[in-house]
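Q: What structure does this chain adopt?
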Amino acid sequence: MNSTWLTLVVALLSGGFALAGTWLAARLAARERAANRADRDFELRRTLYATLVLRVDAFARAAADLSGAEHLGPTLAGLRAAASEIEVYSPRIAKDKLAKLMAVAERGAELARRTASSSPPWIEFLDELQAAREALINSLAADLDQRL
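A:
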């Protein structure tokens, strides 16, 4: 009779350890999936943000080297495309700093059609564009830092 109880206790303990091992493996796999998802999200945002900054810089260079409104059109279109992707992944940034930068860029594109590049309104626009760019970059960097 002693061996029956011993067999039963060993069977229960073995089953308990098997269940605990399965549960632990599932928890570790879930953590690894979450970490991989966070890494992919971080890399995607970093790529989108870098593309946006490159487009902002291209627009700023075209505005600074303005020899006519036609030069701002293609760079503004590229900036709009990059901004639309940010609206999907970072709506908070899109509604705040990016919206301000886009408003300044749109106003600058309209101003380029009516104003000479050496006029005081144009110089003021370039200053506003630079300030909006810096604010946007700070916001993007803070978002990435938060996700590290």
